[in-house]
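Protocol step 6 of 9: fold each sequence in the batch and record its structure tokens directly after the sequence line. For illustration, a two-sequence batch is reproduced in full.

Sequence one:
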Amino acid sequence: MFSTKTLGKIFGTTALIALLIMSFRTPRSAGASELSVLFEPDGSGIWHELVEQFNKGRRVRVRLVEGPPATDAREDMYSTAFLGGQSGYDIVYSDVTWIPKLAAAGWLLDLSNRLEAAEREDFLQADLQAGVYHGKLYRIPVVTDAGFLYYRSDLVRRPPQTFADLQVEAMRHQSQNRWGFVWQGKQYEGLITNFLEVLWGHGGEWITPDREVLLDRPEALNALEFLRSAVGNISPPGTTTYTEEDTRMLFQNGRAVFLRNWYYVWTLSNRPESEIRGKVAFTPMVHAPGKTSAATLGGWGFAISRFSPDPDAAWEFVRFATDPKQLKTLHERTGLIPARMSLVPAEFAEIVRHTRMRPQIPEYSRASDILQRWISAALTGGTSSAEALSAAARETRALLK
């Protein structure tokens, strides 16, 4: 459980946006005949359809509440609701990084005994493990995601294997109207996922399972120096303002040779209106000589609030929504990759089976904020790479003491 001091800090950060959050919240019905779940905006309408399908003939119905598109805003909405105790959301649609915080606070139901062994074996193990905290399972995976290195297959004959290969190929095919390598460098969670893949590719680590901070090591310095040297050379000067969609549009419009991004780009870049349709391939992120590639794990899954008046009914919905039939429909409608091995498209299996989780710590969001701030300072010239990493390591150790 969190201490009173820790809970106070969480409340302090969320209270500042409480008025905005409340505009998205719809109070749950007083009785147990209705359960609620908070989602991102359902642009495809698929989740509304699945919820309606589940509700047919059910004693307890599920109500879908659409929140803001920003992941951190929805995390704050869940935290604010749970701080109120017996109010809020029954079912949690959770990002891979949320579980340690929510479980450590005592807000989630232990699902360890509800998932059968045969079911466990079909889920991607990294995605399943992302729902585990202190040996207990709190989250059932729905969809998985991973960082991919996309490239123009009509320009690049052989995909790069190392960081040096990437630099050479990016420079070779860069032109006045086309950059060599685009990636997400804005100060937000996307920057962390980019940095981690480069850090892991150099053989480094951020925070170990036993909470040791390794940011002030040579591997981390090499990783940050690679990214810093790319800005303005093989990557646009505006990289430090780019998010996923900024980089996807540059690549899809033919203005980049290489792109680091998530799975969804594959579907969009091969649509009829795409300027690079049929000219795109992907490969795992590059690595240093003698090291191995790694992709940051992304994805979503379902957890159940400890405060729900009917956890059995909530579990029935989780079982329904994570059933292969529903996950197959979700993939067909949205292109998202189901978190079951039996449903992962063959061409993506190698990458999604070799993903790595971000640190599973309750303090993750604050540790991420620290690292984002210092990496951004180095990338924008506010400090040196060595000074940034030293400061980030010092602040993170103080956080985890």
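Sequence two, same batch, same settings:
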Amino acid sequence: MSTSLAEEKNQYYTYDDYYSWDDGLRWELIDGKAYAMSPAPGRMHQKICGNLHLQLATFLKGKLCEVYMAPFDVRLNADTTNDTVVQPDLVVICDKEKLDERGGKDAPDMAIEVLSKSSQKHDRITKLKLYQSAGVREYWIVDPEDHAIAVHILENGKYIITPYGDEDIVPVQVLKGCEIDLAEVFAL
């Protein structure tokens, strides 16, 4: 699969197409449209992902929910059109029925995206709308430059947004009792 083929107007892909691509690139599908993912994220992005993963994984040890880091495919409409596959930076899934050997299927309980210069619009607009319509109960957008997180909680089909700064302790709504220390997340 070539970049130019994926960018053709009106080209529609399914998960089967996506899964067959062997071009060494990372892709996401949203409503059948292929989006090339940027090259490997920078050091700060990865450090923040690792710090978040550490706190979530430590809390989840011995519990039913599981946390995964990208690259990890999440097929948001696996049981219907199967034309949407995303790779959130971090994802929490509490229902074992939503996991298979290829990754996650249907809406995870929580998705986290750490912004990069190349992904800001995609994460703040495209993925926000996508996660909201798919029923992702909690969506975090992490801004490494501002040391801030916008937490989106799904209520009645719409996200309610609460901003947090780098000294805050953030409760994870989908994980009762879990709190994330942002001073540790942004400790670089």
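Proceed to step 7 once all outputs are recorded. Observation for sequence two: The CA atoms of residues 42 and 116 lie 8 Å apart.
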